[in-house]
Specification:
Number of strands: 10
Radius of gyration: 29 Å
Order of helices and strands: EHEHHHEHEHEHEHEHEHHEE
Strand order of the largest sheet: 1-2-3-4-5-6-7-8
């Protein structure tokens, strides 16, 4: 699944939000994701701007005030998303936000990285009985046990994530996908804050089954997340590369696939008699060689055949089969 993270890139404008939903659908996303918050619910009097937000506002309250959408506006956007064939996911930041989500009509819940350890919020969101994606940026592996339980209980996923905006490629942390799966099991995705268009495909190759990527109308727009986002044409390439990676990755088990069976048959090797031998002959190592094709007794049985008696005469240089031998 590819989730287009619109987040706050609508700049508080519902019309721009609709445009981004339509762009996400055209680019091939499966779902869009917004953020529901109220500054007075989220911020204490001691709240600070993060370094990547410096210069965008005087304080966090001023920054967030211009990026909010009401519950009624969200309901309208959910209808737009469904008309476009997209799921509608929302990130809440407080218990009061969670209470609004049912009325909005969401398809899934996304928990932001700082709240992966916020068990009251996780518990409340789980009660909505929607799948839940939980980002894990800023977290150490050992902190995520409760988050993993909530994600799995909801039918969702943990999301490997690096909370830097944008994230340098050398810090993308794709190895964390395998680390999360090994420690906690369950589905694991990747919430992508890099500026690259191929990171999603690399994340799929690393084992991610869900991708989240910020979508913007213009990367140099003023706002906290635009610089860590990609524009619609790039997002379409991002999705196409991820889909291609998923096809190329194939099943997560190692089996001989249907497309390989002919090569397996003709290029594996079988045990063959060096010359024609009569019925009753007791085989010795000098009687036998290993040659293609793999339609007879397999090469790995060679050392088991010395001392076995032939049940019938055999041609030289023809793969032996088990019926050529007398039963043991």
């Amino acid at each position: 699944m590819v989730v287009a993270e619109i987040g706050v890139n609508h700049d508080g404008d519902p019309g721009r939000a609709r445009e981004l939903i339509e762009a996400a659908a055209a680019a091939g996303a499966d779902a869009v994701k917004f953020q529901l918050f109220r500054p007075e619910r989220l911020l204490s009097s001691r709240a600070e701007l993060a370094s990547y937000q410096d210069g965008q506002a005087e304080d966090p309250g001023a920054l967030l005030a211009g990026l909010t959408l009401s519950g009624e506006q969200m309901r309208g956007l959910a209808a737009v998303a469904r008309a476009a064939g997209l799921g509608f996911w929302v990130t809440p930041f407080s218990l009061a936000d969670v209470a609004e989500l049912e009325a909005i009509g969401i398809d899934g819940v996304k928990i932001a990285s700082p709240d992966a350890v916020n068990t009251p919020l996780l518990s409340a969101a789980t009660a909505l009985e929607r799948p839940m994606l939980i980002s894990t940026g800023t977290c150490d592996l050992e902190e995520l046990g409760p988050a993993a339980e909530y994600a799995q209980r909801s039918g969702g996923a943990l999301m490997q994530c690096v909370s830097a905006y944008p994230t340098p490629e050398k810090d993308a942390g794709l190895g964390g996908i395998a680390a999360l799966r090994a420690r906690y099991g369950g589905a694991v995705g990747y919430s992508d804050h890099t500026a690259a268009e191929d990171t999603g495909a690399l994340a799929v190759a690393a084992g991610a089954c869900v991708l989240e990527k910020h979508l913007t109308y213009r990367r140099d727009a003023v706002g906290p997340d635009h610089a860590a986002s990609i524009e619609p044409s790039g997002f379409a390439r991002y999705v196409a590369a991820a889909r291609r990676a998923a096809v190329m990755l194939g099943p997560t088990e190692k089996v001989c696939s249907a497309i390989e069976r002919d090569v397996r048959r003709v290029s594996r090797q079988s045990v063959c008699p060096v010359v024609a031998l009569p019925a009753g002959h007791v085989l010795s190592a000098e009687d036998l060689a290993v040659k293609r094709p793999g339609t007879g007794i397999p090469a790995n049985a060679l050392t088991q055949l010395a001392g076995r008696r032939l049940a019938r005469g055999v041609e030289g240089d023809r793969p032996l089969v088990w019926d050529d031998l007398e039963p043991v």
